[in-house]
Amino acid sequence: MESSSKWIIASNRLPFSWDRSEKKLNRSSGGLVTAISGIRSDVEKVWVGSAPEGLDAKTWAAQPEVRPSNGQSFQAVFIEPEIYSLYYNGMCNDVLWPLLHYESGMVDFSDESWQAYVDVNHKFAQEILKTAREGDLVWIHDFHLLLVPGLLKAQNPKLRVGLFLHIPFPSSEVFRQLPVRKEILRALLCADLLGFHDYSYLRHFCSTIKVMLGVESSMLSIEREHHTTHLGVFPVSIDVAQFKRESAMPEVRRTRRRFQRSIPYEKLILGVDRLDYIKGLPLKLEAFRTLLETHPELRGRVGMLQITVPSRTNVPVYRQLRQEIEQLVGEINGQFAQPGYVPIQYMFQSVKFEELLALYRLSDVLLVTSKRDGMNLVALEHIVSQRPSDPGVVVLSEFAGAISTLSHIIPTNPWDLRETAEAVYQGLTMDRAERVTRHRSMLRYLDTYSATDWADSFMSSLAKRSKVAKPERTVNLSQLAPSGSKMSDVMALLKDKELLVFVDYDGTLVPICDQPEQAVLKPATKNMLKQIAEQPHVQMVVVSGRDKGFLTEQLQGLPVSIAAEHGAIFADSPEGTWKRLAHGDRRRWYRAARQVMSDYASRVPESFVERKKFAIAWHYRKSPKEFAAYQARKLKHDLELALSNLPVSVIAGRKVVEARSAGANKGTFVRWYLENHAEHRRRLIVAFGDDQTDEDIFSTIDSPGIGIKVGHGSTAADYRIDSQGEVLPLLDKMVKFGANQLTLPGLTTALRADHAEDSRADYRW
Ligand code: GDG
What we know:
Elements: E1 7-13, E2 16-19, E3 24-27, H1 31-37, E4 45-50, H2 57-62, E5 72-77, H3 81-100, H4 111-131, E6 137-141, H5 148-155, E7 160-164, H6 172-175, H7 181-188, E8 193-196, H8 199-213, E9 221-224, E10 227-233, H9 240-247, H10 250-262, E11 267-274, H11 281-294, E12 302-309, H12 316-336, E13 344-347, H13 353-362, E14 365-368, H14 377-384, E15 393-397, E16 410-412, H15 417-429, H16 432-447, H17 451-468, E17 475-476, H18 485-494, E18 499-503, H19 523-534, E19 538-543, H20 548-555, E20 560-564, E21 569-571, E22 579-580, H21 587-603, E23 608-611, E24 615-619, H22 625-642, E25 648-653, E26 656-661, H23 666-676, E27 684-689, H24 692-700, E28 706-710, E29 719-721, H25 727-738, H26 744-756, H27 758-761
Parallel strand pairs: 1-4, 1-6, 4-5, 6-7, 7-8, 8-10, 11-12, 11-14, 12-13, 14-15, 15-16, 17-29, 18-19, 18-27, 19-20, 27-28, 28-29
Antiparallel strand pairs: 2-3, 9-10, 20-21, 21-22, 23-24, 24-26, 25-26
Helix pairs in contact: 3-4, 4-5, 10-13, 11-12, 11-15, 19-25, 21-22, 23-24, 25-26
GDP-alpha-D-glucose binds near residues 167, 374, 378 and 381.
């Protein structure tokens, strides 16, 4: 990453709240704040967020906490209270929050709140642009600012912009209920990098853009017009060192002892959640009731402490939820209380940090029953705050993103009260040796993956990805004027040269058809191809993923060589003998497969990646059985999607998931061809292609070879034309020009003339 660049971090709120009576800033809590504040990195950071409620610009500027220090500064966005309320309470919390957490019945959309959301996103973009300089990395956080990538890129396409979603991305069936779904998706696709906690969220995002916008993706990236959006899974983390260090402090130890005396249970079940319907608090209380019903021996001995942090207390749904919870607590306490024993202690307030740590240490079981939860940091915090010699246990909902990263928790379906009660029972009765082993394994993972690692992996991915995209490098031949110097550059290369032309079939020689068998060469096209290929100074090779039968039939009688099945087999002419070429290039899929597999290997203990020549495998034979088997199914699914258009097959074997090269590669073929056709080696190479498999040719041909990409999408080619219909007319002109049958002005005018007919041209052959 460039050392001079800074990180601009934008989130709805800055990490402060304003205490009106004391007139001072307080540090606020919450998952996003915990994650961002936990980043310990040397890079200069500017944190942009809306000003704490009730604070004006002058008072804000006077606060000592907001002055730049330790390479970090804060920039507040001031928004009129009415607009902020429509944006935050309306669009964010009454629309996006419930919808993205699958609570579509709770969605309350209005044009007014949408307009406020648009306005606030504009304000954020303007504030970011004030500080952003070339080379800076802009990191947008969460569902409050989904339009910002689009707004930033519209003003400054060179900015590098990433967005991380802290909450789930739901199934396309849910997301498509949103009236402004397309506006949001289009804005997101302007980002250079989109990050999610979990592959399942990423998968849902991919199917949503496919369903809603017809945009294809490879799971690792989305190609759209001249922009590539990279996708990644970056499960959030916490400041592991801080939690470890502070939970062992004497102050925390003292607080724990104090609590131990006042909490009269043999075993303690702890719950820590914001008041929110996604956290499944009524389900948690019901599961606890079931536990006491099914295990009467626990009555009088086991208790629960539930800390519920107030949030959105003025919103009716949240008020009702609070009432429902308090009523349930009352009922359960009434049902099981004994003199000196109240089963549930319930707090509707937050606790101090050291108290939270003391409670983590004191508890035997942490119970998380979220109905949906992007990640759930409380589970991570509980683990790193334990005493390794006598740790507590986490019972975690399958619907929290953390389920994919924490290998030795006890999983549960929170809707199944009996299962949750049994999971808690298992946690309460687990022997120390097993607790220690489970805890050690998860701690080992968390030790290597703190909030800083999370941020570094996201930001280095953003820095790297946005540099790889090369759309600016390509020159659009279709749009060049006759005097265009770039065109004359190309043509200067052709002068007096013999040509070796590699041309793809589908999408390049013929338009893409719904049914592959319909993509036949029309007589006029065939005729034109013949005239070009017959020129004495031209040698032409059609390189396609198609099989030899189809290509032979289409190209019969033409003076061209054919490489079929991505170059796995070759014939010098349609009538010639086919040769099987021994190769199996793996570069294009291997990197993607390795990345996904390594992510899994870092999360699933004792699992590892084996790299072979034409295959890569993820083994999990020694990993925790159920967790790893579930992850293996997910991995297979992820790989199948990510690699679906590539020559690779994904196989799930015994305790292994393997991706194997399914054959050939066009780039390898071109190398083989040049090595084995010495007579053509001195020719100038011209290659045309439209899809990902042709990229291997473009990256194989050395300068001064000419790669021409047909259509949009990032490419290794240096030139681009807009549509398939331009391929043969352009090639024809290039060939004629090379043979001195056409002058440069004649060529460019002819090209423009063809171009003017472009819309009709698709295609008259
Ligand atoms: C969102 C997503 C995702 C809680 N009570 C007290 C307290 N906290 C702190 C915890 C923890 C944070 O608040 C809660 O984080 P979660 O991750 O559990 O949940 P959300 O606030 O809903 O966060 C979530 C997260 O973003 C990050 O991406 O994991 O899924 O919903 O850090 O410690 N802190 C103190 N006293 C409390 O009483 N001091």
